[in-house]
Amino acid sequence: MITVVPLDGGGGEGGSSPDAGTDGGGGDGGKSSSNASACDFTCDGDCVPLHPGDTSYPVLVWIGPNDGSAPDCPDNAPVEQFVWYTDLVVPPKSCGACSRGPSFATAPPAPPKPSFRRMARVCEGSAFGRCEPDEHCAPAPPGGFRQCVYAGGEHDCPSEGYTERFVVHERFEDERTCTPGACGAPEGDVALEGPRTLCCMV
């Protein structure tokens, strides 16, 4: 059944139509506003600069002593991506005293091994929400962790944002050798392998 509303809008039926339209518009408008509000949410972590150049997306990194005191990855970034190291300490290595006699051809005792003084634990997680177009929504760092990006090899860091630079490594190879019967300093060196550059926010 079709109801025809007079063009002059006067009277009972004509007056009721604008009221109905106003009520209906208010309901639709409320629904539309609610949907827009539901989509307009802020980042539940930190809005940080996007990764510059060929670096990674932002990660949380703990950098500190390599003495077993490093915390686990935090709950908001629970995936440990890497553990890297820096500040290599190389104890002196000697092939023994120069002497002659029965001990001349014996192998020298094992020297102290090199070790890294500091380490970097790299943790990945997720955060959700809206940031500026040139930003990334990343998990907020708990105490001791930092927002960083990384790249393979040794590189400079940006002049803004991720400005503090750390060169870290995957491991070392002690290539120093002593020839049986030799004395004095060993041949070879300690080689650092797998360099990475961490660029962190100050």
The largest β sheet comes out as: 6 strands, antiparallel
Order of helices and strands: HEEEEEEEEEE
What's the number of domains? 1
Q: What's the end-to-end separation, in Å?
A: 71 Å
Strand content: 25-35%
- What is the oligomeric state here? single chain
Low-confidence stretches: 1-37
Structural classification:
alpha+beta
Q: What Rg, in angstroms, do the CA atoms define?
A: 33 Å
Mean pLDDT: 80
Give the strand order, joined by hyphens, for the main sheet: 3-4-2-6-10-7
Protein name: Lipoprotein
Region (Disordered): 1-32
Organism: Polyangium sorediatum
Concise summary:
It comes from Polyangium sorediatum. This protein has 202 residues and is an alpha+beta fold. Helix content is 14%, strand content 31%.
Per-chain topology:
Elements: H1 11-39, E1 46-49, E2 59-65, E3 79-89, E4 115-124, E5 135-138, E6 145-152, E7 164-168, E8 171-174, E9 190-193, E10 196-200
Antiparallel strand pairs: 1-5, 2-4, 2-6, 3-4, 6-10, 7-10, 8-9
Entry keywords:
alpha+beta, six-stranded antiparallel beta sheet, two-stranded antiparallel ribbon, 1 helix, 31% strand, disordered N terminus
Characterization of this structure:
The protein has one domain. Helices cover 14% and strands 31% of the residues. The chain has one helix at residues 11-39, and strands spanning 46-49, 59-65, 79-89, 115-124, 135-138, 145-152, 164-168, 171-174, 190-193, 196-200. The strands form 3 sheets. A 6-stranded antiparallel beta sheet has the order 3-4-2-6-10-7, with no helix packed on it. A two-stranded antiparallel ribbon has the order 1-5. The radius of gyration is 33 Å and the shape is elongated. This is Lipoprotein. Residues 1-32 are annotated as: Disordered.
